[in-house]
Write a structure and sequence with these properties.
- This protein has about 150 residues and is an alpha+beta fold.
- It folds into two domains: about 80 residues, Alpha-Beta Plaits, CATH 3.30.70; about 40 residues.
- It contains two helices and ten strands.
- The strands form two sheets. It has a five-stranded mixed sheet with strand order 2-3-1-5-4, with helices on one face. It has a five-stranded antiparallel sheet with strand order 9-8-7-6-10.
- A hairpin with a 5-residue loop joins β8 and β9.
- The chain is elongated, with a radius of gyration of 18 Å.
- The relative contact order is 0.16.
């Protein structure tokens, strides 16, 4: 787990990276990316189903969320909220949510009563029907309709 970055403004952060329902591999990837990019860490909290990283660079945090989705698939959402005003300019804080999924590329799944193979996990899931070879795109918010088969 990355340690908070020693700094005179130790509690300063621009973004929260929320990781939910993730594997150890995803957590290691995030820790390595934070270290590699030297992203300042204000604090790390363990929460139900995951971790919250309070990070000192909003752009790098947003990029990290995008990398997570490209590499592991899953739900990726970025929101911003008005934090304060500085010299009459609005200052926003980002929240980047990454929610993992219980599937990997190549898994056999059942969707709408038929067998599919997971071909791509990206912005959405690309499934290919085992019998007809027809491909369908499924949004992560519809993931509860997909059941893993053996």
């Amino acid at each position: 787990m990355p340690k908070p970055t020693p700094d005179r403004h130790a509690e300063y952060f621009e973004a929260i990276l929320q990781l939910r329902d993730i594997s150890d591999e995803v957590l290691r990837f995030v820790e390595d990316e934070i270290e590699r990019n030297k992203i300042p860490v204000a604090k790390v909290q363990e929460v139900k189903n995951g971790h919250d990283f309070y990070l000192g660079n909003g752009n790098l945090t947003k990029n990290l969320g995008k990398k997570l989705q490209e590499r592991f698939g899953g739900e990726h959402t970025v929101t911003s909220s008005l934090f304060s005003r500085k010299d009459s300019k609005a200052v926003y804080r980002l929240t980047v949510l990454f929610r993992g999924i219980p599937f990997i590329k190549g898994d056999l799944v059942e969707y709408q009563g038929e067998q599919y193979t997971i071909k791509i996990l990206g912005k959405d899931m690309l499934l290919q029907n085992v019998k007809t070879s027809k491909k369908v795109h499924v949004k992560y918010k519809e993931m509860d309709q997909i059941k893993k088969t053996h």
